[in-house]
Amino acid sequence: MKENEKAMTKNRDKDIKNNNNEKENNKKRKNNNKDVGPDFEAEENDMLALSLNSNRPQSRPRLMPSVDTQLPASLPLPVPPQSSPSLSLQPTPLFIQTLMPQKHSSHPLQLSSSHPLYMTTLQSSSSPSMPLPNPGVPTSRHLRARRNPTQGPREGKSETVPAPFPWATTRRAMVHSLEYLHSRQIVTITGEVQCKRCERQYEMDYNLKEKFLEVGSFIAGNKSTMRDRAPSVWMNPVLPACKFCKQENSAKPIIGEKKKVINWLFLLLGQMLGCCTLEQLKYFCKHTKNHRTGAKDRVLYLTYLGLCKQLDPSGPFDR
User: Fold this and answer.
1) pLDDT of 280-303, one tens digit each?
2) Distance from the Cα of residue 204 to its chain's centroid
3) Mode of pairing for the β-strands spanning 188-195 and 251-253
4) How many CB atoms are closer than 10 A to CB 201?
5) Any idea what the Cα angle at residue 206 is, between residues 201 and 210, rounded to 5°?
6) Which H or E run contains 233?
7) Kind of pairing, strands 251-253 and 201-207?
8) How far apart are CA 3 and CA 178, in angstroms?
9) Please, which residues have CB within 8 angstroms of residue 289's CB and are 6 or more apart in sequence?
10) What does the alpha-carbon distance between residue 88 and residue 256 come to, in Å, rounded to a whole number?
11) How many angstroms separate the CA atoms of 239 and 254, rounded?
12) What is the mean predicted confidence (pLDDT) over 2-14?
């Protein structure tokens, strides 16, 4: 009987000693983990109760620290007691990284490499874009000089030629003014035509005053709608009827092979400048200091205005 009491007393002292040691260890752990929070203290009390009541083992779910709680990186985490392996106070590093507040970056969504949307986000963010020029580094750009065709005759050719007609000047593609022609009593302009049907050639004449008034009135009334382009009536002129076979739209003007002998005034009064080729029209614009590049309707328009300007410098024939 006495031996049993001694054994019980010895066991009680041993339990008290173990409890004191356990309290001391818990006190040290509390001092080392002051920043853990009230949840950690509750968990420590539960662990103490479990260790005292070993005859009724029970498993409590692991309490997760709050999101706002940050564990110090320099302090070691407490080692859980061996008696309750189900209780683990050491969270995984990935879990801590997930709970710790992240710094705001330029990307609102941060995905791990194992996420199924990771590759899609990576591809969209790394899509090629236009490189922005560096304002500090000057870019080397080869400046090509603008092509400016010569407005004069080629080397070896003179600017002046013998006047091919009484109404033409000695300069290429130039005619006298109306004032000069009236002073010389030149009132009729003649030219050679050939019938496309019977192929007979003959000379036609136009009244200078009447025909120029007709052409000038047409330009003054339609210039705003032409848009610097010759109308179809100029591009495809209606030819005179042949005086021999009476074929309508058949008498075509004869244009010399040499551009310097083209009868420009006769073609203007008959509104047959559209019968000239593009090269012949460019020849006129070249020697009258006009822009000669572009389609035929543009060059033809400039030819009409240029000839009317030569006849009447004060008329409404500016571009």
Assistant:
1) 999 999 999 887 788 999 999 999
2) 58
3) antiparallel
4) 11
5) 160
6) helix 232-235
7) unpaired
8) 155
9) 151
10) 110
11) 12
12) 73
Q: How far apart, in Å, are the Cα atoms of 99 and each of 36, 42, 72, 107?
A: 14, 20, 13, 19
Phi and psi based region of residue 52 (left: phi greater than 0; alpha: psi -120 to 50; beta: remaining) = alpha
Query: Of all helices (H) and strands (E), which one includes residue 188?
Result: strand 188-195
Average pLDDT in the 265-278 region? 97
Q: How many residues are there in the chain? A: 319
Say how far apart CA 292 and CA 299 lie, in whole Å: 6
Angle at CA 319, nearest 5°, toward 188 and 226? 85
| Beta-bridge mates of residue 204 | 191
Q: Residue 109: is its pLDDT beyond 50?
A: no
Are 27 and 3 a contacting pair, CB within 8 Å?
no
Phi, psi of 202 (to 5 degrees): -160, 175
Question: To which residue do tokens 């407490």 refer?
Answer: 78
- Measured CA to CA, the distance from residue 271 to residue 264 in angstroms comes to 10
Q: Structure tokens of 129? A: 């874009």
Q: How far apart are CA 277 and CA 181, in angstroms?
A: 28
pLDDT digits 0-9 by tens, 54-77: 545 455 545 554 444 444 445 555
3-state SS record for 27-88? HHHHHHCCCCCHHHHHHHHHHHHHHHCCCCCCCCCCCCCCCCCCCCCCCCCCCCCCCCCCCC
Side-chain half-sphere CA neighbours of 51 within 13 A: 22
pTM of the predicted model as reported, rounded to 2 decimal places: 0.54
Q: Is the pLDDT of residue 147 over 70?
A: no
**Distance (Å, rounded) from C-alpha 29 to C-alpha 46?**
14
